[in-house]
Amino acid sequence: MKTSQLHKTLIASVGAFALGAFTLGSMPFASAQSEQGEPQLMRPDPGFIQQLSFADLVEDVSPAVVSIRTTKEVEARYSQLPPEFERMFPQLRGRGDGMPRQATGEGSGFFIDANGHIVTNNHVVEGADEIIAVLYDGTELVAELVGTDPSTDIAVLKVKPSSDQRYVNFSPNADLRVGDYVLAVGNPFGLGGSVTSGIVSAIGGDDRGGQYADFIQIDASINRGNSGGPTFDLQGNVVGVNTAIISPTGGNVGIGLAVPAEVAADVTEQIIESGSVTRGWLGVGIRDLDARLASAVGLDEAKGALVGTVTEGSPADKAGIQEGDVLLSFNGQDVDSATALTRAVGRAAPGERTKVRLLRAGEEETLNVRLERREDDVVAAALGRQEPEGDDRLADSLGVTFAPLNDAVRERLGLEEDVTGVLVTDVSVESEASEAGIRPGMIITEADNREVASVRDVERAVEAARDRGKEAVLVRVVTPQGRDFRALPVGSGD
C-alpha cells in the first residue's frame, strides 16, 4: 500500500512541529500577540486541523480487512437452558441430550496476497466446522484452513479471491517505538469495518513477552471480535496482529496485545509453504539469574539462563548439559535471559547443529548440540495424565476444567519446582472463557491477585467475584508464550 499524499503532508507537518520549524500562518501552529506585545498560547491552524484525519489511510487498507464468522457443532448441555429448568431437575445439570447444536464465533482477519491467503488468530478458528470470510463489500466466501500455530496464535485461511482483491503487507522493518501512532481495524462485537487509533504503549518486557514473540502493547481500543485483525502504522503496513486484551472486566481498558509483524510474517510464510510451523527443541527447564544467583555461580552480571531440569533423552541430555549449568551463549549469540534462549532455540531449525557455551562449577565449557523438533504434544502428553478436579457445577458454568499441578507436569512442561498453581485441562470452545483466551495447558498461578495453590483457590476467587457483581476475575497465567494475564469470565453461577 502506498501512503496517501494527505498522510505524507500530515507526517511532514508533525515532524516540522516537533523540530520547532514554525512559520507564521504557514505551519500547523501560529503564535499571536496581545496589544501589549506579550506572546500568547500557540493556536492550531484550521487547515492543519482538517489534515488530522486517518480517513485516506483507512480507505486504502479497509478493503483488505475481513470479518471471520465460524460455526461448530456441539452437544447441547442443560446448563445452557434457563436456570429455572436446572433448579427443577438438578440431576440433569451438565448432561447433554445428545442433540447437536450450532455454536458460532466471530473474529477478524486480513488478506496478505493476491492468492486469497488471509491471516487471523488460531483461537478464532480453532475447532470450527465452517469458516466464512465476510469481505469489505459484504460478500461472503467459504474459507479453507491452511494451517495454524497455537504458540503464536496465528492461523492462515484461503479463499478464492476476485481479480482485484486488495491486500496489505507486513511491515518489512517495523522498528516500532513506544509512542508511535497505530490503527486497529477489525470486527468488534460483529461491527465489521470498525477502526480505532492509539499509540504503542509498550513492547515486550516482563509479563508482556512471549515464548516466541515480544507482544506489542497498544491502547487503541480492541474488543471481542477484533482478534486476528491488523494493527497498522501510518504508512499502511501491518505492524501487528491483534490477539488479546488484558482487562479485569473482560472489556477494553486500553491494554491490547498484538503479535509483532516480524513474527507473524515468518509464521505465515511457513504455514503457507508447509501447512505448519517447526521449531527447535533443546529440552531444558531454565530460569533467569538475579544478582545474588549470579554472584553465587561466579558471574559479574545477571545474564544467562540457569538450567533447573534436563529432560531425559533430550538434545540437551545427549549433549551433556546438566542441571545447575548456566547457559551463556547459543549459536554464537550471548544469552541475556531465559526468555531470550527459548526464543533463539525456537527460531532454530530441527536437526541444526549448534554450539552452546556454558558455565559449570566456575569453568566455561562449549558443547555441541543437535536440536530436535519441538512437538506440539508436549502439553497434550502432560494433560493426558491429569484427571480434572473441582466442582462440576462451577466447571459447567465457566466452561473450564482444572487439575492440580504436580511434579510430573512441572517436569514435562519445563516449569520450576517452586511454580504453584492449577492446570487448565479443558476449555469449551463455545464458552466465554475460550473467547477470553483461556486455553488447555495454561497454568493459573494467581486469581484476584492471590496465589493459587489448589483448584479450590480458583473456585473461591470466582465465587467472590460473583458475590461482588464482577463479570470476570483477573488471573495470572503461565502459557506457552510466557507469563501473562487473562480475565476469566465468572458468569452468573446459576
Indicate the mean pLDDT: 77
Number of strands: 29
> Architecture of the largest domain in CATH?
Beta Barrel
* Beta strand %: 25-35%
Biggest β-sheet strands, sense, barrel: 7 strands, antiparallel
Q: Going across the major beta sheet, what is the strand order?
A: 7-6-3-4-5-9-8
Question: Distance between the terminal alpha carbons, to the nearest Å?
Answer: 51 Å
Task: Describe the protein in words.
The protein is an alpha+beta fold and 494 residues long. It folds into 4 domains: 5-53, no CATH class; 60-278, Thrombin, subunit H (Beta Barrel); 281-373, PDZ domain (Pdz3 Domain, Roll); 377-489, Pdz3 Domain, CATH 2.30.42. Helix content is 23%, strand content 33%. The protein has 14 helices and 29 strands. The strands form 6 sheets. It has a 7-stranded antiparallel β-sheet with strand order 7-6-3-4-5-9-8. A 6-stranded antiparallel β-barrel has the order 10-11-12-15-14-13. A hairpin with a 2-residue loop joins β28 and β29. α10 (377-384) packs antiparallel against α12. The longest helix has 15 residues, at 5-19. It is globular. The two termini are 51 Å apart. Residues 1-34, 77-95, 206-211 and 376-388 have low confidence and may be disordered.
What is the element layout, followed by pairings?
Elements lengths: L4 H15 L9 E2 L12 E2 L1 H6 L3 H7 L3 E13 L5 H6 L7 E16 L5 E5 H4 L4 E5 L5 E3 L1 E6 L4 E5 L22 E6 L7 E10 L12 E3 L11 E3 L5 E8 L10 E5 H14 L5 E2 L2 E4 L3 H7 L7 E6 L4 H5 L6 E5 L2 E2 L3 H10 L5 E8 L2 E8 L1 E2 L3 H8 L7 H7 L1 E5 L2 H7 L8 E6 L4 H4 L7 E5 L2 E2 L3 H13 L4 E8 L2 E8 L5
Antiparallel strand pairs: 1-2, 3-4, 3-6, 4-5, 5-9, 6-7, 8-9, 10-11, 10-13, 11-12, 12-15, 13-14, 14-15, 16-23, 17-18, 18-19, 19-20, 19-21, 21-22, 24-25, 25-26, 26-27, 26-28, 28-29
